[in-house]
Automatic annotation (TrEMBL):
GO terms for molecular function: metal ion binding. The keyword Isomerase does not apply. Residues 15-129 form the Hemerythrin-like domain. This is Hemerythrin. It comes from the Bacteria. Pfam families: Hemerythrin. The keyword Metal-binding applies. Belongs to the hemerythrin family.
Length: 137
């Protein structure tokens, strides 16, 4: 059985807006895991993809804003990762239309990697910077 993601408070960036968005993403990934477990309807994947597209637009705009505001030195690299995420999610929409099989598996493995490398990696690195620079307590 696919295990659910666990939330730990060391994921917090300590900017409420960003943390709320990360919590939403966390819930979305677990929703996908439940969908897989229950062998949910394929159409639900398209709903998830739509929500992910909307999430990406809002969330990346928020992070980009805070990175610019605090002159984050790794902003360019970080934003490139965001761009890649957005492109991949759009590909999922195309894959859905094409009737690609195992789409939920592909989405899940992509999102898990995103969670561990970007949210728990790059975003955390940004949070550390914010703390060291005195922007957050
Ligand atoms: Fe993020
Ligand atoms: Fe990010």
């Amino acid at each position: 059985m696919v295990s659910m993601l666990n939330w730990t408070d060391d994921m917090l960036v300590h900017i409420d807006e960003i943390d709320d968005q990360h919590r939403n993403l966390f819930l979305l990934i677990n929703r996908l895991i439940i969908h897989k477990r229950n062998q949910g309807r394929r159409e639900e994947l398209m709903d998830l993809i739509r929500v992910l597209v909307a999430f990406a637009q809002t969330h990346f705009r928020t992070e980009d804003h805070h990175m610019a505001e605090t002159s984050y030195p790794l902003a360019m690299v970080h934003s490139k990762e965001h761009l890649k995420f957005t492109e991949r999610i759009k590909e999922f929409a195309t894959d859905y239309e094409k009737g690609v099989e195992d789409l939920s598996d592909k989405m899940l493995s992509f999102l898990r990697v995103w969670w561990t490398t970007h949210v728990a990696g790059s975003d955390k690195k940004f949070a550390t910077y914010l703390r060291n620079e005195g922007y957050i307590p």
